[in-house]
């Protein structure tokens, strides 16, 4: 299934302000139901996580884990925020964290 990306700052702000959230040690998930007919996903990784190479690696891990594991019936705007602990995390750890958060969302 193909998911659209959240790109605009206003979209991220809307999800943060009006949406709900779940969190664990590695990721924070903000979500807001939408009526657009598709699920849109955004990823945010702060400079606290590490330099650009580390941040981009964490983003790639999050996007791939979402691509492989998201089976959502409803349509949402979703934002994943990486916590500082995610900088050393391997793919299975990120995937497990994401599955935990998506299970709460369902």
From TrEMBL:
Catalysed reactions, as listed in the record: Endonucleolytic cleavage of RNA, removing 5'-extranucleotides from tRNA precursor
Pfam families xrefs: Ribonuclease_P (PF00825)
Enzyme class label: hydrolase
InterPro entries tied to this protein: Ribosomal_Su5_D2-typ_SF, Ribsml_uS5_D2-typ_fold_subgr, RNase_P
Keywords: Endonuclease, Hydrolase, Nuclease, RNA-binding, tRNA processing
GO molecular function (one): ribonuclease P activity
Its EC number(s): 3.1.26.5
PANTHER family, per the entry: RIBONUCLEASE P PROTEIN COMPONENT (PTHR33992:SF1)
Subunit details: Consists of a catalytic RNA component (M1 or rnpB) and a protein subunit.
Similarity-based family: Belongs to the RnpA family.
Cited function: RNaseP catalyzes the removal of the 5'-leader sequence from pre-tRNA to produce the mature 5'-terminus. It can also cleave other RNA substrates such as 4.5S RNA. The protein component plays an auxiliary but essential role in vivo by binding to the 5'-leader sequence and broadening the substrate specificity of the ribozyme.
The protein's name in its UniProt record: Ribonuclease P protein component
Recorded name of the encoding gene: rnpA
């Amino acid at each position: 299934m193909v998911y659209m990306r959240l790109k605009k700052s206003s979209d991220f702000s809307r999800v943060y302000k009006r949406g709900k959230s779940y969190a664990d040690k590695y990721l924070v998930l903000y979500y807001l139901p939408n009526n657009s007919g598709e699920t849109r996903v955004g990823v945010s990784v702060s400079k606290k996580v590490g330099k650009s190479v580390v941040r981009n690696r964490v983003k790639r891990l999050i996007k791939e884990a979402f691509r492989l594991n998201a089976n959502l019936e409803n349509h949402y705007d979703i934002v994943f925020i990486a916590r500082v602990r995610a900088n050393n995390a391997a793919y299975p750890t990120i995937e497990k964290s994401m599955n935990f958060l998506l299970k709460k969302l369902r």
